[in-house]
């Protein structure tokens, strides 16, 4: 236990990636976290509010998607922490960082699906944008995380897009 009036100093991080490079990676991961949280919230909102002929299938699909997205948030935030920086965690921070536009009102089911396709593709572009610095500094754990997120978002966008075809 730290005695009162004693300052606790954090240990220096020495993982083979400089502070400045870790900071650049965290900037990208923070945007990915904000996009992912915004997508999570959008998907959960649509799960609650979807109506129409495809209600049951979309309601269930959206639930599966927001559950996966919720679990991913922790993985992204914990990578930011492992790199030595605080993870953003407020609406105010997420609004500044996200590239996904908030949806007003309750769209029809087909528009919900289109909005989710676009949002998943936006998250994929954000994730892909982190690769140059990650590759440059040989950060395999972040590369692995990004690769996994890309696979999920690209596949989900394809599956959602497929529901729009007749």
From TrEMBL:
InterPro entries: DPS_DNA-bd, DPS_DNA-bd_CS, Ferritin-like, Ferritin-like_SF, Ferritin_DPS_dom. It holds the Pfam family Ferritin. Coiled coil: none annotated. Residues 27-165 form the Ferritin/DPS domain. One of its GO terms (molecular function) is oxidoreductase activity, acting on metal ions. Belongs to the Dps family. PANTHER family: DNA PROTECTION DURING STARVATION PROTEIN (PTHR42932:SF3), GENERAL STRESS PROTEIN 20U (PTHR42932). This is Ferritin/DPS domain-containing protein. The lineage of its organism: Bacteria, Pseudomonadati, Pseudomonadota, Gammaproteobacteria, Moraxellales.
